[in-house]
Amino acid sequence: MTSDIDRKICQKVMGWHTFSQFDYDWWCPCPKGDHDLTGLTVRKHETFSPSTDISDFWLVEETLMEKGLTCEYIDALIEITNILIVDSDKSKQVANYRLTSAVIFLLLHATPEQRCLAALEAVS
Ligand SMILES: [Zn+2]
């Protein structure tokens, strides 16, 4: 089953559309109205889950890079991962200023779901 986050990532970040064939739902990367699958890879919905599988998210990250959205993505990921710091310090600005290495650490350890939320923010 495809989660709401995974569905939004496929549609809004990857630009994929969905179709059904052979009793499965598939994600298709073809340009809209085209549906020529030559050289393209389609994926069963249940086998692509970037919100839970980091190896699936790498493809999302590559797409963000191709779209020139790395700064927007990193900014959003800092916001999302800093929620943990804000909750304890009650001051995000202080946290950002004092905890630069901690912020980097949080970025490196961001969960696939946090990364997906940042990716969606980056394309919004
Ligand atoms: Zn298609």
Explained architecture:
- The chain has 124 residues and is mostly helical.
- It has one domain.
- It is 56% helix and 10% strand.
- The chain has a three-stranded antiparallel β-sheet with strand order 1-2-3, with no helix packed on it.
- A hairpin with a 2-residue loop joins strand 1 (17-21) and strand 2 (24-28).
- It is elongated, with a radius of gyration of 17 Å.
- The model is unreliable at 94-98 (pLDDT under 50).
- Bound molecules: zinc ion.
Task: Please outline the helices and strands.
Blueprint (H helix, E strand, L loop, with lengths): L3 H10 L3 E5 L2 E5 L14 E2 L9 H13 L3 H12 L1 H7 L2 H7 L1 H9 L3 H12 L1
Antiparallel strand pairs: 1-2, 2-3
Helix pairs in contact: 1-7, 2-7, 3-6, 3-7
The site of zinc ion (ZN) has 4 residues, from loops.
Q: Outline of this structure?
A:
By secondary structure, the chain is mainly α.
What small molecules accompany the polymer chains?
zinc ion
Radius of gyration: 17 Å
Strand order of the largest sheet: 1-2-3
Structural class: mainly alpha
Written as H for each helix and E for each strand, in order along the chain, the element string is HEEEHHHHHH
Number of separate helices: 7
| Apparent shape | elongated
Query: Can you tell me the number of structural domains?
Result: 1
Number of DSSP E strands: 3
- Beta content comes to 5-15%
End-to-end distance, in Å? 25 Å
| Percent in helix | 55-70%
Poorly predicted segments: 94-98
The biggest sheet amounts to: 3 strands, antiparallel
